[in-house]
TrEMBL record:
MF term (GO), any: sequence-specific DNA binding
Protein name per UniProt: Propionate catabolism operon regulatory protein
Keyword Transcription set for record: yes
GO biological process: regulation of DNA-templated transcription
Domain Sigma-54 factor interaction: 301-533
Keyword Transcription appears in the UniProt entry: yes
Stored SMART domains: AAA
InterPro entries (UniProt xref): AAA+_ATPase, AAA_lid_NorR, Homeodomain-like_sf, HTH_Fis, P-loop_NTPase, Sig_transdc_resp-reg_PrpR_N, Sigma_54_int, Sigma_54_int_dom_ATP-bd_1
A Pfam family that the UniProt record links to this protein: AAA_lid_14
PANTHER family: PROPIONATE CATABOLISM OPERON REGULATORY PROTEIN, TRANSCRIPTIONAL REGULATORY PROTEIN
Keywords linked to the UniProt accession: ATP-binding, Nucleotide-binding, Transcription, Transcription regulation
Length: 612
């Protein structure tokens, strides 16, 4: 478990944690993090099952992190006790609480003055920033004593104002016990999730689920058929099944059971460094012989069509050049795979590949995340500073995904760095010489954004030294079968399906080659996984129309197929004009309707304008 909070809160929890030391492993960390990246680093460092925090900080962490967050409760008795302590300092008490109180607590706070013979000036807030604003505005009222959460007490101490922590030892114990229950549920959910991921029910293997003491918790149907009631398994049978000598490491060994040879595979089940138990599989020798070695494809980059072969060849050529590469392609066409190919063949192949999603980087965090900062550069800056993404990518490749979504203000800052190749972190006097290759990607023609004033022309030419256009999957149908075969094989091996990928694709080919693939390769990958999983529970073991309708309903929706092949050839420009009217100028929708890329559509629209 991880405690994230300011000093007074951490000290309170530390004062009561002694009674729980045999039950939990607790770490404390001052709440100095300022971004999701910082919090993710803490998660990677501590691997907590649950985080404990308080007030606005707990609410923010719960919204930001995937790890469960338990908040310090505030009981009515805590409010009364804290105000009584404050009364010993002054009869005028400034009370700060997270969120506007409701119900009984609201009535209690309204009556506190009369109950305790004091003047209560109550302030509430919803975020940490609002807490700071509310507190500093209250200084005009010259508070003599402050009651509130640890952050408020922290600010009061800095102003030399006496402060009383709102939380009590009893409520801290309640929080710890609640966190222990949440952590236990998390461990159980992890065990169940692990079982689902390994398709406990859908395998020819005999499966034993053991707890950390190697007691049998569950058997799959195949093992039940062989053994009967697992809980009555006597010591002799346990020994013959080699369950007593299991070690805390992954092992594979041949064992003899009832005059047959099995491969015993032991997987150690762990979650955040906690031992959940063991999954023991017994695989018949016949099944081992039937499994083929997996195909090896570099970065899952499958190429079959002449157009994509040319793209792959150009990517390798541009990789060894010094200039930036701009990749243009619809969503799901594999722009990141191309970026990885460029990295793999570049002179920076031994350096890092740092990917930045420009569309999801908040404007207020752009400089600190991209350029980094020194310790003390701003309020709540991380101790020791922070290495920005540009510095992390030095001696490697910086991949700017969704670059068209970057606001103009951020574009100018990035352009200066790319031109000068010198980085100066925020608040730092030191300069860092950059040696990196830049690869950018966009899902629409970037020059169109330049013409419409949404993208800087100078940055466009800086990024567009070499251009790579990835055609959508519907324009390179030769790739569909090769990519589908690859993913069908990957998922068949992952889920233990013994049917040949080629046999599966025979029943899919007509549907796949007719479909227009709006989601491109990403959608094809998803379809392949769905089909394989559906086959795991299909009694006939065949790809039936009912199975396809249930697992891939997109194939049967109206308009799922390609537009008639002659539509564009017969009267291309009229077809474009008609489609533009039909979709109210939505170029992405028009391109999908006509079965062409957005880049091709842009060129054809230019032709239309010139012909008028």
């Amino acid at each position: 478990m991880l405690i994230l909070g300011f000093r007074r809160f951490s000290e309170l929890v530390y004062s009561v944690v002694g009674k729980y030391t045999q039950q939990i492993d607790l770490s404390f960390h001052d709440l100095g993090a300022s971004s999701k990246t910082d919090f993710d680093a803490l998660i990677d460092r501590y691997h907590p099952d649950v985080i404990m925090s308080a007030g606005a900080n707990a609410a923010y962490l719960a919204d930001t992190l995937a790890v469960p967050v338990v908040s310090q409760p505030v009981r009515d008795a805590d409010v009364i006790e804290a105000c009584l302590k404050a009364k010993q300092v002054s009869s005028k008490v400034h009370l700060f609480t997270y969120a506007e109180p409701t119900g009984v607590q609201a009535r209690l706070i309204a009556q506190l003055g009369d109950l305790l013979g004091i003047t209560v000036i109550h302030k509430f807030y919803r975020t940490s920033d609002e807490a700071s604003e509310v507190f500093y505005l209250s200084l005009a009222e010259k508070p003599e004593v402050v009651v509130g959460p640890s952050y408020t007490c922290h600010m009061a101490e800095k102003e030399g104002i006496p402060s009383i922590l709102l939380y009590s030892r009893e409520s801290a114990e309640d929080m710890i016990e609640n966190a222990m229950a949440v952590a236990q549920r998390s461990l159980l959910q992890a065990r169940h999730s692990y079982l689902r991921d390994h398709l406990f029910e859908q395998t020819e293997d005999l499966l034993f689920l053991l707890d950390p003491e190697r007691n049998i918790l569950e058997l799959n149907p195949k093992a039940q058929q062989a053994l009967g009631d697992a809980r009555r398994l006597n010591s002799r049978l346990r020994q013959s099944w080699h369950l007593n000598d299991i070690q805390n490491v992954h092992t594979e060994r041949w064992v003899a059971l009832a005059n047959e040879r099995y491969l015993q595979i032991v997987d150690v089940l762990e979650h955040n460094d906690h031992l959940l138990g063991y999954l023991v599989r017994y695989r018949p020798v016949q099944a081992i012989a039937a499994v083929k070695a997996p195909s090896i494809k570099a970065a899952n980059f499958v190429v079959s069509s002449p157009r994509m072969s040319k793209v792959a060849s150009l990517a390798k050529t541009y990789a060894v050049a010094h200039g930036a590469v701009l990749i243009v392609g619809e969503s799901g066409t594999g722009k990141e795979h191309i970026a990885r190919e460029i990295h793999r063949h570049s002179r920076h192949a031994n350096g890092p590949l740092v990917a930045v999603n420009c569309g999801s980087l908040p404007s207020e965090l752009f400089e600190s995340e991209m350029f980094g900062y020194e310790e003390g550069a701003f309020t709540n800056s991380r101790r020791g500073g922070h290495r920005g993404l540009l510095e992390q990518a030095n001696k490697g490749v910086l991949f700017l995904d969704e670059v068209a979504e970057m606001p103009l203000a951020q574009q100018s800052k990035l352009l200066r760095i790319l031109q000068d190749k010198v980085l100066r972190p925020v608040g730092s006097e030191r300069s860092i010489q950059l040696d990196l290759k830049v690869v950018a990607a966009t899902n629409r023609p970037l020059f169109q954004d330049v013409e419409e004033g949404r993208f800087r022309e100078d940055l466009y030419y800086r990024l567009n030294t070499f251009a790579l256009e990835i055609p959508p999957l519907r324009e390179r149908k030769e790739d569909i079968s090769a990519i589908a075969a690859y993913y069908l094989e990957v998922f068949a091996q992952q889920y233990g399906l013994s049917v040949s990928p080629d046999e599966i694709y025979v029943d899919l080919s007509a549907h796949f080659e007719r479909y227009r693939w709006p989601g491109n390769v990403r959608e094809l990958e998803s379809f392949c996984e769905r089909v394989v999983v559906a086959l795991m529970v299909e009694p006939s073991g065949n790809v039936t129309e009912a199975l396809l309708r249930a697992s891939l309903p997109e194939l049967f929706r109206e308009g799922a197929g390609f537009t008639a092949p002659g539509a564009l050839k017969q009267n291309e420009l009229q077809a474009i004009e008609s489609a533009m009217q039909m979709y109210d100028g939505d170029r992405q929708a028009v391109a999908e309707h006509l079965g062409i890329s957005t880049t091709t559509l842009w060129r054809r629209l230019k032709t239309l304008e010139q012909g008028r």
